[in-house]
Amino acid sequence: MTVTIEARDVTFSFGETQALRGASLAVEAGEIVAVMGPSGSGKSTLLHCLAGILVPDSGEVRFGDVRLDTLGEAERSALRRDRFGFVFQFGQLVPELTAAENVALPLLLGGVRRGPALRSARAWFERLGLGGLEHRRSGELSGGQAQRVALARGLVARPQVLFADEPTGALDSLTGEEVMDLLVDTAREQGTTVVLVTHEPRVAAYADREVVVRDGRVNAPAGVGS
Ligand SMILES: Nc1ncnc2c1ncn2[C@@H]1O[C@H](COP(=O)(O)OP(=O)(O)OP(=O)(O)O)[C@@H](O)[C@H]1O
């Protein structure tokens, strides 16, 4: 299998706090990997380094043949826009926009015209059980609905890699499972690679593989050979 995204011996500090201390993780194309670990262990920092949001202090981050850690900010941001999708704990929808406009955003930012962008966006609503909610604003959606809209926004531009940071963290367990079912089904259908940060074993169980971050390093979970 081809490795899509990889961190090699990455370190990253926030001032005095060493968040990553030599973290390595290689994710294969189409693989869904859950990143587990205690609070403060460095999971989100690792995700941000893999996604080219943060630049490591040392070590390498590769996306296919591209070294993300040596790219400039403009190139990294173009790559994030064109190749990566994101879903965060609190959907972070733009409150002034309708649900359909929120989903269309990555396409609009990528230069797609408004008409076709909105048509592509609307196609996601039936698929994710959101039919009829296209014109609602985020304040008029339930937590689960808003998170499904955020998921559609993360996938609408058919990213190669979807980065999901606690995508069900703000939802009750049943709604969280519905969102995970949709996330995993659509990622598999599109062949999207997924890096999923979660502290919930129930959510991690949806992944093909789990890794554990402890003290800024990545280990296989206890009982699993490395
Ligand atoms: N913006 C920041 N400024 C300063 N320190 C930070 C910042 N973000 C994270 N840290 C610190 O870096 C370390 C790793 O944080 P990170 O958010 O990666 O952990 P996490 O495993 O994702 O935690 P959680 O499960 O609680 O979200 C922690 O000690 C945290 O306090």
UniProtKB/TrEMBL annotation:
GO function terms (MF aspect): ATP binding; ATP hydrolysis activity; transmembrane transporter activity
One GO CC term on file: plasma membrane
Pfam family, one: ABC_tran
UniProt KW keywords: ATP-binding, Nucleotide-binding, Transport
Cross-referenced InterPro entries: AAA+_ATPase (IPR003593), ABC_transporter-like_ATP-bd (IPR003439), ABC_transporter-like_CS (IPR017871), ABC_transpr_LolD-like (IPR015854), MacB-like_ATP-bd (IPR017911), P-loop_NTPase (IPR027417)
Location of the ABC transporter domain: 5-226
Protein name: Putative ABC transport system ATP-binding protein
Species name: Micromonospora humi
Upper lineage: Bacteria, Bacillati, Actinomycetota, Actinomycetes, Micromonosporales
